[in-house]
Amino acid sequence: MMLHFGALTAPDLLAVFAVALLWAGSGWIIEHPPARRLSVSRIMQDYRRDWMRQFITRQPRIFDATLIDSLRQGTAFFASASMIAIGGGVALIGNSERLRGLAADLTIDPATVQVEVKIILSLAFLANALLKFVWAHRLFGYCAILMAAVPNDPAHPEAEHRAAQAAEINITAAKNFNRGLRSIYFALAALGWLFGPVGLLLAALASTTVLLRREFASQSRDVMLRR
Hints:
This protein is mainly alpha-helical. It has eight helices and no strands.
């Protein structure tokens, strides 16, 4: 099957460029928020450091082991879901007849619209999400090992240092997990391209709005900042 990228119009290319900017820009703002308006992701970094400071003196440490295992299971679930979605998308692209039928059901003219190319954009976001989730899963595993290396004695000279190392690895793992989630949001938004460049742009704007609202104007953020 031949994919004709040259058939894309100027509005299509501009919409794709705008989506890439929204994806990269929203991620940068969330990870580098202004000091006067911290994002939920940035606030959670401080809580993760507090977690590891409390971890030093907690006896027994069963709760911490259960929590880090839960985080690993969450990343594994999303990695598996992303892999399944990628497989389904690739299978759909390989079945031109079914794909054209889908385009017809969506009132899209399959003769003039490169549906396969438009699905590839969603697959690209899914592939990025998969890579982020896999790396986050591995980092949470590293964090578990570092936590196990923290001495049981709070007075041990290495206790705080090891706990601080575990906290930073935990933060890096969470950062990659959140990047994967953002890619999932934009993978769903990319399906709006099936309805044209305007549909793609509107879906991307909606996803960006949801992401930024949850990071900067959500009720959960207010609770985290409550003293």
